[in-house]
Design a protein that fits this description.
Layout (H helix, E strand, L loop, with lengths): L1 H21 L4 H28 L1 H9 L7 E2 L5 H17 L1 H12 L5 H39 L10 E2 H18 L2 H11 L4 H6 L1 H15 L5 H28 L4 H37 L1 H8 L7 H4 L3
Parallel strand pairs: 1-2
Helix pairs in contact: 2-4, 2-5, 5-6, 6-7, 8-11, 10-11
């Protein structure tokens, strides 16, 4: 009895929440809600940025490690403060990504279905994990190789690389962002498969183009003639594509209908096609009959007139 009451309360609460979400709010209410979500995001970025200022020397040391002892300069009196501010701000934004995604989902929750909200939440968590994996790969493998090639390939007795710390910071951030985006390939494939189901066999046919794009992207991220370095960057892209194809195969296999249901559906479709064909034939025959009757109106009128039978007295008058 208690279970029945609890289920009824849950259904009532769900219906009330749906009715509340379906009500149209004034435009000013959406503005207030957006301002509240943006305020939470700004507070999160401020808190994490302030926390990053307390450990900024560790962050700077970690950012300079892939340069392998390369010296940097800044060309203005406020260049050092500007670099420190950027480091703290970018760290605060990176640490606030889960908060940003959560606040965005809360703001869009009344506009989308509940299952889409859950899918977006799970996708955000998986996307964060893949982004961390991509950034770790770029930091420990891709970035040192790229910097070693760019800073030592064009170095002579008269040419020395003299880089500003701001330009180095921009290069490192763009490189890490590109590495994080490359590892989003399986999630992108799964998202497309949710909108329009994909066939793994067809995706495998496009693998040659993925390999070509992987080597082109690896050449852009790490412009070195070394084949080993190219394979180190192109390999993870190809592996991520294979992982995406495997996930799509597993998802489609789980949601595939049983064989008996598919057989019944095919038989039902066949019967519907036969009924439609017979109906079209009957309709065509009816149209032909109507056309014939319209072509001979007198014959139709004569055939429609009732026959008059004459008696013997009328046939043989006295």
């Amino acid at each position: 009895m208690k279970r029945i009451k609890s289920k009824a309360k849950k259904r009532l609460h769900a219906s009330q929440s749906r009715e509340a979400a379906s009500r149209k709010l004034p435009f000013i209410e959406h503005i207030h809600e957006l301002r509240k979500r943006l305020f939470y995001i700004a507070v999160s970025i401020g808190v994490f940025s302030a926390a990053a200022y307390g450990v900024e020397h560790y962050i700077v040391k970690a950012l300079l490690k892939p340069a392998e002892g390369q010296e940097f300069i800044y060309t203005s009196p406020g260049g050092g403060i500007d670099f420190l501010f950027r480091v703290c701000l970018y760290t605060g934004i990176a640490a606030s990504v889960p908060v940003i995604v959560f606040q965005l989902l809360r703001y869009l929750e009344p506009l989308v279905r509940k299952d889409l909200v859950h899918f977006a939440a799970r996708g955000s968590i998986i996307s964060g994990i893949l982004a961390l994996a991509g950034m770790a790969f770029g930091y420990f493998i891709g970035l040192p190789a790229a910097l070693h090639f760019l800073l030592h390939q064009f170095k002579t007795d008269q040419i020395e690389p003299l880089l500003t710390i701001q330009s180095y910071m921009s290069f490192v951030l763009l490189y890490m962002l590109g590495s994080a985006m490359l590892f989003q390939l399986p999630l992108i494939l799964v998202f497309i498969n949710r909108i329009k189901p994909l066939k793994p066999q067809k995706l495998l046919k496009y693998e040659r183009w993925i390999i070509l794009g992987a080597f082109v992207g690896g050449g852009i991220l790490n412009p070195t003639p070394s084949i080993i370095d190219q394979l180190m960057l192109a390999g993870p892209i190809i592996v991520m594509y294979q992982v995406g194809v495997l996930l799509i195969w597993l998802i489609n296999r789980r949601h595939r209908r049983p064989r008996k249901v598919s057989t019944l559906l095919s038989k039902d479709a066949q019967l519907q096609a036969e009924r439609l064909q017979s109906f079209q034939q009957a309709q065509a025959a009816l149209q032909q009959t109507a056309q014939r009757s319209a072509a001979s109106p007198y014959a139709a009128s004569d055939t429609s007139r009732p026959a008059i039978q004459m008696t013997d007295a009328e046939q043989n008058p006295a």
